[in-house]
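note to self — DONT lose this again. spent like an hour looking for the file last time. sequence + predicted structure for the chain T wanted, 170 res
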Amino acid sequence: MNRRVLVVGLLVASPLLAVLAVSFRYDPHFIRSPLLGKEAPNFRLVDIDGGTYELAALRGQPVVINFWATYCPPCIVEHPMLSQAADHYRGQAHFLGVIYQDDENLIRKFVDQRGRWGPSLIDPDGRAAIAYGVYGPPETFFVDRDGKIVDKVIGEVTASHLRATLEPLL
């Protein structure tokens, strides 16, 4: 084996292996969003019933924004918990569901069968998802009463995480 090839291979592979080894210490569902601590990107979206919602108009109360879809198993699992939380925090916080690349008819059928925990907002061209840097559903953003993003969860959000993040914002 050529010694130069071995040395070059080790020089290329070593930093990559070091990054991989260090990354094992972190939760794979946690990706620090560059939006944390910044103003939440505003959006104006229509829900499946025709109502219009603008994020900026909800200032003064915390907002939980959940990007979800009917084809997403973790979204189905977290749906009952979000329903309970939305009921519990009614009048204290807003809960918005932004549909991520899904069919409006499937959304209607889903919410008719399982109930609603907030408006199901259609993001027809994906601009809201792009503005928030969404990789895929579910992703949940917590926005404080001043409109700043204080937390982001990739994957299923748990009741304990939701409570621990939302309570201080009330």
